[in-house]
Amino acid sequence: MPKIVDRNARRLEIVEAATEVFARVGFADTKIEDIAERAGVAKGTVYQYFDSKAELFIAVCQNLVTWPPEAAPFLDDPFKGFEMLIHALADSYERSRDFYVILLDYWAVLIRGQEPYRKYFLSMGETFYAHPRRLLMQVVQRGRERGVFKRSADPAVVASLAIAGIEGLRTQHVQDPKHIDMKKCLTMLVKSLRDGLTSSGTVR
Amino acid sequence: MPKIVDRNARRLEIVEAATEVFARVGFADTKIEDIAERAGVAKGTVYQYFDSKAELFIAVCQNLVTWPPEAAPFLDDPFKGFEMLIHALADSYERSRDFYVILLDYWAVLIRGQEPYRKYFLSMGETFYAHPRRLLMQVVQRGRERGVFKRSADPAVVASLAIAGIEGLRTQHVQDPKHIDMKKCLTMLVKSLRDGLTSSGTVR
Amino acid sequence: MPKIVDRNARRLEIVEAATEVFARVGFADTKIEDIAERAGVAKGTVYQYFDSKAELFIAVCQNLVTWPPEAAPFLDDPFKGFEMLIHALADSYERSRDFYVILLDYWAVLIRGQEPYRKYFLSMGETFYAHPRRLLMQVVQRGRERGVFKRSADPAVVASLAIAGIEGLRTQHVQDPKHIDMKKCLTMLVKSLRDGLTSSGTVR
Amino acid sequence: MPKIVDRNARRLEIVEAATEVFARVGFADTKIEDIAERAGVAKGTVYQYFDSKAELFIAVCQNLVTWPPEAAPFLDDPFKGFEMLIHALADSYERSRDFYVILLDYWAVLIRGQEPYRKYFLSMGETFYAHPRRLLMQVVQRGRERGVFKRSADPAVVASLAIAGIEGLRTQHVQDPKHIDMKKCLTMLVKSLRDGLTSSGTVR
DNA sequence: GATGAATGAGGGTTCATTCAT
DNA sequence: AATGAATGAACCCTCATTCAT
User: Which CATH number fits domain B68-198: 1.10.357, 3.30.565, 1.20.81, 3.40.50?
Assistant: First the structure.
């Protein structure tokens, strides 16, 4: 038998090293050697686990896409649940700065990537956004059923808006933390959306 | 003038060619030669106008940061003005897909860039976001003064949220246009924010 | 205008440098850098003239395939012509040791090469062998018409045999010059083939 | 014996696997891993039997050099024997395409190999060609003694020519089977050489 | 002995940048 | 000013070989 190694563990070590490096310098400027060094292995070893830099990047993204909170505890109270969910999502961004920063390259592939990868990332993106969106839609739906949210509220639209708000705030915050008071903004985000869900609808 | 084309015109041609190429394939994968070809000049010529690929990218970004609509016509009617402003901003993204796509690389520099450039892009970002933010804050402020928006509404927060919503929706839309109904989402964005600005405030 | 260079001349210099290196160490062990050095240019320059090592090798082979002697002066006298032709062919091998040695790699591509190249080399091989074969067939044919060679002699077969003999002798000679007396062997080759072309045919 | 398979059998398995792979893709493009896989062993195991890829190639060549037919049955009738011998040699090429194809790399070492190997392969080449040459020389010699071949015929030259013809025809045939009618060519090869061995000698 | 994980030197290729014309 | 040929540092990836188990 050869050297005893837990391939899965080693693989994960490399993915984690890669996550850190990709996040710090971006895909284009990342050298495989840097990743190897950070993982404490030789350059060639990386290629025993991943066929190419691109494959490794995919693995990194997949590894990142495992964060979303469970919805169960939030569902009972639509009002409170909606608020909790948004904060949980925002936190998940907060918790992993890597995650957010790697999204830049992730998006880049999505928008401009060549076909083999583009399609792949696209499906990844679906699961990626699909889970939080599903959770959000569930609370909204529940709220409608209970009569606390308006019938006319479209759960898909609300979910998109909530995610958009969170991401958009993060984007501005990452650029210049001083200009954004995240706490206040998130509070207002929740409030506005809830108002939109409950207001009598006739504006003006 | 020794030549028929003056330097400024030629320079702009190169910037525009670069904009198109950067947007299409991203900064890292853009070759100076591609830009030169698209601009109809030789590779060396590009270096007569820009010291490096990075400088050229800066010029491209600066050239992009000239879009926002004028606020004047909207200011009189806070309600209508707020709505118009958001749609105008969304349109400006819409109108220039290049613009949005280049933001990816712009952000990348902002977040990870080495110092000479990072600081530079940061200040650029300020003007970049500052103008639309200022316009939004103006309408909100005006609304407060007229008593149509709540006193407690923080113009800075509202502006951030509006921009966040627009950008976040675009992000999702660029990834998969089918999943997002932009029109509905923008309408709800306006409505929610307005509700947040007018609701009696007592939540629950 | 850029540096004034005769691209064709420079290209040829590189091909000639490559010919020497490919011949000396073989395709697989040839480093582009070695070729560049021998041509007195930088590594990158080679790639301005050839897309890849394989393309360069093709160019080398094509450049080599320009040797065959003109037949005209020999055609009148089938006997003498046949002899002269064989010696001329043998000489052309002799003159360019490079040529012969590079054939090894040429054949390797032909026999095992992947499709884009295999087909290409195949067509090259046709012209490569086609010319000497055509010359040989012409003299034989002329001899038949004049009645000095047997009607039953097949020009194609004779041509193949003559070329086979020359190449086969070279192969042995390159391996160990001491074991082969080229002059005597060529004389006997000519004599045998001529005997085969004139003998009454009833063997035994 | 500690294991079921003895070293010699295992060694031979590896050599045979290597023969197949070397023939198919050539020495340079052969990966030890491919050989190991085909032999049904692990990569490291190959190195238990051979110190290096080069050593393994030597072993492959040595294993190949065991083919030639026995002369005894041919010797009695010089005419018939000469013919049979040439066909037997041609068949031996035919039977093992591997053999012929590996010659390419064999020759390459012979011509350009570094010293430790070059000399080695040279001596191998001698035995390699020596055996068939010896057989051919024997029949010719026998024919001279019996008075059916001319005194002036040089057995060494005839042997070289016969081998040259066979190899040269194979070379052309491998490149493009359509262009060569091997049967006809071999018949004419035999006939020509025999004519050369019996003709009255005064050409013209 | 056998295994296969790890290694790292090595080479093909790219491309931003320079510079002679 | 414009050109595009030349440069060479940089980097991805391969694969023969080693070695711990």
Answer: 1.10.357
Chains touching chain D through at least 3 C-beta pairs below 8 angstroms are C
- Asked if the Cβ–Cβ distance from C193 to D192 is below 8 Å, we say yes
Maximum distance among all alpha carbons in chain A?
A: 77
D-C interface (Cβ pairs under 8 Å ≥ 3): yes
Q: Give the CA B41 to C1' F9 distance in Å.
A: 26
Condensed to tens digits (0 to 9), the pLDDT of residues B119-157 reads 788 777 777 778 888 888 988 998 999 888 988 889 999
Which member of C104, C169, C196 has the closest CB to residue D164? C169
Within 10 A of C13 (CB to CB), how many other CB atoms are there?
16
**Residues near D142 by Cβ (< 8 Å), separated by ≥ 6?**
D75, D78, D81
For residue A28, pLDDT over 80 is answered with yes
pTM: 0.86
- Rg of chain D over all Cα atoms, to the nearest angstrom: 20
Q: What does the DSSP assignment read for B121-181?
A: HHHHHHHHHHHHHHHHHHHHHHHHHHTSS-TT--HHHHHHHHHHHHHHHHHHHHH-GGG--
Residues of A within 8 A of B192 (CB-CB) are: 161, 192-193, 195-196
Q: What is the rounded CA–CA span in Å between residue A27 and residue B104?
A: 13
Q: Does the CB of C112 have a partner CB in chain D at under 8 Å?
A: yes
Distance of CA D161 to the CA centre of its chain: 15
- What is the residue extent of each domain of chain B? 7-62, 68-198
pLDDT at B2 over 60: no
CA dihedral angle for residue D183, residue D187, residue D190, residue D194, rounded to 10 degrees? 180
Report which of B162, B184, B200, B165 is spatially closest to residue B82, judged by C-alpha positions. Answer: B162
Q: Which sign does the torsion angle of CA C141, C146, C152, C158 carry?
A: negative
The 3-state secondary structure of D113-154 reads CCHHHHHHHHHHHHHHHHHHHHHHHHHHHHHHHHCCCCCCCC
What CA–CA distance (Å, rounded) separates B158 from B144?
A: 12
Contact (Cβ atoms closer than 8 angstroms) between residue B75 and residue B139: yes
| Least Cα separation, residue A49 to chain B (angstroms) | 25
Contact (Cβ atoms closer than 8 angstroms) between residue A71 and residue A139: yes
The answer, for C189 touching chain D at a CB cutoff of 8 Å, is yes
The token pair that represents B84 in the structure block: 């118009």
Q: In the block, which residue shows the tokens 């696209």? A: A122
Joined tokens for residue B124: 């650029």
Query: Smallest Cα–Cα separation from C170: which of D183, D115, D163, D99?
Result: D163
Domains A7-62 and A67-198 share a fold: no
Q: Could you tell me which residues come within 8 angstroms of residue A167 by beta carbon, excluding any fewer than 6 positions away?
A: A93, B164, B167, B168, B171
C-alpha to C-alpha distance for A166 and C165, rounded to whole angstroms:
82
According to CATH, the topology of domain D65-198 is Tetracycline Repressor; domain 2 (1.10.357)
> In this structure, which topology does domain A67-198 adopt according to CATH?
Tetracycline Repressor; domain 2 (1.10.357)
The CATH topology of domain C7-62 is: Arc Repressor Mutant, subunit A (1.10.10)
Tallying the residues shown for chain D, one arrives at 204
Low-confidence ranges of chain C (pLDDT < 50): 201-204
Closest nt to residue A45, judged CA to C1': E6
D66: three-class secondary structure by DSSP: coil
Nucleotides of E under 7 A from a protein CB: 1-21
User: Which pLDDT tens digit goes with each residue over D6-57?
Assistant: 888 999 999 999 999 999 999 999 999 999 999 999 999 999 999 999 999 9
> Could you tell me the CA-to-CA distances from D29 to A197, C28, C118, D111 in Å, in that order?
67, 8, 15, 19
Q: Is A195 on the interface with B (CB under 8 A)?
A: yes
Output the CA angle C111-C116-C121, nearest 5 degrees. 50
